[in-house]
Amino acid sequence: MTEPTRAHVFVSGRVQGVFYRATTKETAEGKGVDGWVRNLDDGRVEAVFEGPEDAVEEMVEWCHTGSPAASVEDVDAEYEEPQGEDGFRIRR
């Protein structure tokens, strides 16, 4: 098992109202990644992925495509110390 890591991601483009958050949650749970996702007032989506390094990397890569209806322009990821996220949730 790889070391746990944490990625804090901001996704811009047409990423709200296109099931981006729901698809992110499904994908993260399928990969065993913990964290959360939410819409921001400026139209971006913010997400935190925490778990095995390879699975977190896959989630960051996935963000570049996102849900089928999304049109992603940019993904900005910063890596941080894991904070013990448990489960994956959609924040309001």
Automatic annotation (TrEMBL):
Recite the UniProt keywords alphabetically: Hydrolase
**What molecular functions are annotated in GO for this chain?**
acylphosphatase activity
Q: Where is the Acylphosphatase-like domain?
A: 6-92
Q: Give the stretches traversing the membrane.
A: none
What this protein catalyses is: an acyl phosphate + H2O = a carboxylate + phosphate + H(+)
Q: Does the keyword Metal-binding apply?
A: no
What Enzyme Commission number(s) appear in the record? Answer: 3.6.1.7
* Pfam families registered for this protein in UniProt: Acylphosphatase
Q: Which residues form the active site?
A: R21, N39
For this protein, the record's NCBIfam families field holds:
PRK14444.1
**UniProt record similarity statement:** Belongs to the acylphosphatase family.
Q: How is this protein named in the record?
A: acylphosphatase
